[in-house]
């Protein structure tokens, strides 16, 4: 599976890819923050600051998408990235699962 970027509008495709990657990184950081919160390694002030930072990042991403008409492009590329990651994880996990069955 490969990511399809429209050659007719390389700028749109490239900016959409950048936004999609930032969204993926934000999701990873949010999951890590939730894990730290649940484990008790974040105090209330740190949790509040992280929550505010994630809200501001969400707003900035949405603003960039809207100002550049990239809502559909970024969402499409994000879906393609998610598919690539899922395929890669499936490939990595399958041999491990088969090895555990033996």
Describe the protein.
- By secondary structure, the chain is mostly helical.
- The chain has one domain.
- Helices cover about 85% and strands about 0% of the residues.
- Helix 1 runs antiparallel to helix 2 and helix 1 crosses helix 3 (about 70-100).
- It is flat.
- The mean pLDDT is about 85.
**What does the main sheet amount to?**
none
Low-confidence stretches: none
Give the overall silhouette: flat
Structural class: mainly alpha
Number of domains: 1
Percent in helix: over 70%
Percent of residues in β-strands: under 5%
Give me the Rg, rounded. 18 Å
Series of H and E elements: HHH
**What's the overall average pLDDT, rounded?**
84
Helix segment count?
3
Distance between the termini: 30 Å
Structure summary, number of beta strands: 0
Defining traits:
3 helices; 102 residues; flat; mainly alpha
Structural topology:
Elements (H helix, E strand, L loop, with lengths): L9 H30 L4 H24 L3 H31 L1
Helix pairs in contact: 1-2, 1-3
Care to give the gist of this entry?
The protein has 102 residues and is mainly alpha-helical. The protein is 83% helix and 0% strand.
